[in-house]
Amino acid sequence: MLRKRVLDAELVKYSLIYLAEEMGVALRRSAYSPNITERADHSCVILDVNSRVLAQAEHIPVHLGSMPVGLRGILNYLDENGIELKEGDVILSNDPYITGTHLNDVTVIQPVYYEGRLVVYVANKAHYSDVGGANPASISAEAEEIYQEGLLIPPVKIVSNGKVNREALSLLLSNVRMPHVALGDLHAQLAANLTGVKGVKKLIDRRGLRNFTEACEIFLEQTAEDTGAEYRSMPEGEYYGEDFLESASELLDNPVRIAVKVTIEDEQVKLDFSASDTQVKGPVNTVYGVTVAASTFAVRTLFRKQVSINDGFYRTVKVYAPEGSVVNATRPYPVSAGNVETSQRIVDAIYRALHKAMPDRVPAASCGSMNNIMIGGPGWAFYETIGGGYGGRTGKDGVDGVHVNMTNTMNTPIEMLEKYYPILFTTYKLRENSMGHGEYRGGCGIERAFKALEKITATIVGERTKLKPWGVNGGTEAKPAEYLVRRSNNQVTKLKPKHRITLAPGDELIIRTAGGGGYGPPEKRPTEKIRKDIENGLLTPDEALKNYPNINQEDIL
């Protein structure tokens, strides 16, 4: 009997995971914006009535880890304002201080009722290419308050009793640069949640409500047990780590400290960010949901065995981030870049702390930035992120040209961009010599460049242009990022990591992302691997001779 209950729980667990993935397919295939259809910048989750994650798709870590915080925030808001959530209602919000990320991430949540009883919530979060504000694509290099970043929407019924709230929809569409795209993306989000609603009801029809509820409790507890076993393989103790953002904004170049004390004990992990800097007048602040998402991500990546990601895991990670700090900002401090950049540095700070406990598990630093590019003109805006190098790790080189840590998006094909926007790409390749060196080298960054075909506004929000991705266990730092503009007269200007600039026709924007740090002493790297990197155009002979003392010129010819 017990074996059957466990088997039933496994069937329900994987049915819900599959359903979350199916929701994501529905969203991506019916969306309008390239940011979703091409980059897959969206996430889908199924949660129970207590805001506990039952299942999530393999989507965006910063979305997924913040979703339970966001659902609790939305339900608290509805309760405080006397708003009842009924069958056929759908809530929409992008308020970062409630939903847990930034304004571009529009959260859509729908309750699922079965025979008149609330059983779960289906939810998705999608990054809109533009939500208004002073800057095309809405992520700013210089914002000093949230209102400069775009339209802020508190939790509102975008659908009530199955009917679209036209007044709320008009308010949203009247404040964005591409209303037809936003409308298409919203319809895709609604379709994704309807897919989830139908799937959950069908699953309960097959299993029965009582068996479904019992199965959820069983697999959550099993995940908690599996997670506890992982913690028992880690050395208990307190560990401290810190890292820095290079600048708060285009206007403020002062570094911002992210500091964390990590405590491993009693089959759980506690992360205390009390020593981090206070919130700043720049867009790099994060809301609490982002800090939770980055913390849970960093802890989970250090597990040795496969553990399901649901509340059985999430409940074991305790995060303390004081209100008013850069990792738990309060209204009206801006947060657009905190979601994309500070989240990366939170992971780095945790890795630095836990490297002292588990030097064989923690990789060298990855590129440390999403390298955000926002471009636009009258009536249009586009957003993309560009990958970099992943850090070297035990037994393996880092990965070349990938999105790392808190993002899991895909490449935007240049053919699609050239078709729809007034830009012409001139370069897209791996950046040679950008890796950190070691027994296991870091991954290479990317060089991506385009020319403007008409006057456009471009904004860069990036990091790691001065503070290089660090190596571990004797590995070297990686080459830092750099952002350049080459004017039509061939004059080249180096941009700040947070920078807004106007491009005239013929001007070229050049993005060179950082590599990943090296792992282990460079002199231990086999000659044949060095030779292969040279043959593949990732490493020049001169750079090899400079960084690998165990080889000579004859070895690499």
From TrEMBL:
The stretch of residues making up the signal peptide is: none
BP term (GO), one: glutathione metabolic process
Among Pfam families, the record links this protein to: Hydantoinase_B (PF02538)
Q: Name one GO molecular function term.
A: 5-oxoprolinase (ATP-hydrolyzing) activity
Question: Domain Hydantoinase B/oxoprolinase spans what residues?
Answer: 9-522
Q: Name one GO cellular component term.
A: cytosol
Taxonomically, the superkingdom here is: Archaea
Name of the molecule in the record: 5-oxoprolinase
Q: Which organism is it from?
A: Caldiarchaeum subterraneum
